[in-house]
Amino acid sequence: AFFFSDFYIAENFFQLFLSHDLIVPERYQTRPLSGSPQYPNDFVNILGISDGERVVVPVFTSPELVHEWFGDELACKRMLGAELIKLVPNDWWLCVNPGQEIEKELSPWEITELQAGQVNILE
Are 85 and 114 in contact (CB under 8 A)? Predict the structure, then answer.
């Protein structure tokens, strides 16, 4: 069941996501990675991972979580969530803190709504 307070939790999450630094693995690494998707162009330098029929961009709230997830060093950059959503190709997903007990996937629809500046996407 959807509770009134769930709306505020989601709204707070999206506001924090847009306004805080995230650790974003880069597409171009010192050695090639498996599971690379088809990128729309050579200028997209965020890591996308093929996951069945979809592509997911992993992002993290701390550098330690990147190492925990990948098990090795990855070239990463730090950027605001508001900057990141401008770089995500159409139809790609985001996953905040993948592999953690608490993770959040953002669908292409949610990303589009956030790009449009609509923080209250649950309305």
Answer: yes
CB neighbour list of residue 118: distance below 8 Å, 6 or more residues apart: none
Q: How big is the CA angle at 112 (ends 123 and 96), to the nearest 5 degrees?
A: 90
Q: What is the pTM of this model?
A: 0.85
In whole angstroms, how large is the CA radius of gyration of the chain?
A: 15
As averages over each run of 10 residues, the pLDDT of the chain (123 residues) reads 55 85 94 86 93 94 94 93 95 95 92 78 53
CA dihedral 100, 106, 107, 109 (to 10 degrees): 170
The number of angstroms, rounded, from the C-alpha of 116 to the middle of its chain's C-alpha atoms is: 17
8 Å CB contact between 97 and 65: yes
CA–CA gap between residue 50 and residue 92 (Å, rounded): 10
Distance CA 25, CA 51 (A): 16
Predicted local distance difference test score (pLDDT) of residue 23: 97
